[in-house]
Amino acid sequence: GFLALQDELLQAEQKDQEIIDAMMLPTISGPNLALWRGDITRLHADAIVNAANSELLGCFCPCHGCVDNAIHSAAGLQLREECYIIMKRLGHQEPVGQAKITSGYNLPCRYVIHTVGPVVIGRVTALHSRQLESCYRKCMELAEQKGIRSIAFPCISTGEYHFPREKAAQIAVHTVRDFIQYSQNEIKVIFNVFTERDETIYQKIFDRE
Ligand code: ADP
């Protein structure tokens, strides 16, 4: 019945929290970085990051495989409504490399931080790299302001936006590490990879540095 279901959900929640605690890898920059492969919408982190598009209203493209789609689908319509209000107030498209925060609604996380990564057409430039770095930094700044203790990042821009995966992973790890070093609060950061290929790329960076 209902109680059994509630119990099951509670256990699942505890298990997810245990996963977050257990997967924190000790690295040279401190014990607060982790690598985890799976669906970001399942994470009971304080915040998950959405690799959004500049409309911020969720993805309507037919790919159905993007993280934006997964997050909006799992969060429910209220997320789109809050994003709509933010966009109306903003009065223009969300620029690349900024961050906006909303509630998580039906997601197990408390907040979603939305950031728009650079679209790479042709060769990746120094501007693309700075923009991607800005995505990670602004999300971390917002998380710090909100007193967030754990945050999960997907591999921003590496899907439909075609940022080269190795370079994107390096930017992700380096930017977050730099931020954590000088940050006031203790914050756990989960690099949430979705594919085995990305897991290998991140693992190599962790092993090497
Ligand atoms: P972008 O448009 O910024 O490139 P995409 O959503 O197309 O964003 O891809 C970003 C990354 O998100 C890709 O590496 C993809 O494998 C990953 N991804 C897709 N679905 C999920 C999910 N449910 N959880 C975590 N990561 C996901």
TrEMBL record:
UniProt keyword terms in alphabetical order: Hydrolase
Domain Macro positions: 20-209
MF-aspect GO terms: hydrolase activity
Record-given protein name: Protein-ADP-ribose hydrolase
Organism listed in the record: Fumia xinanensis
Species classification: Bacteria, Bacillati, Bacillota, Clostridia, Eubacteriales
Residue window of the full protein shown: 54 to 262 of 262
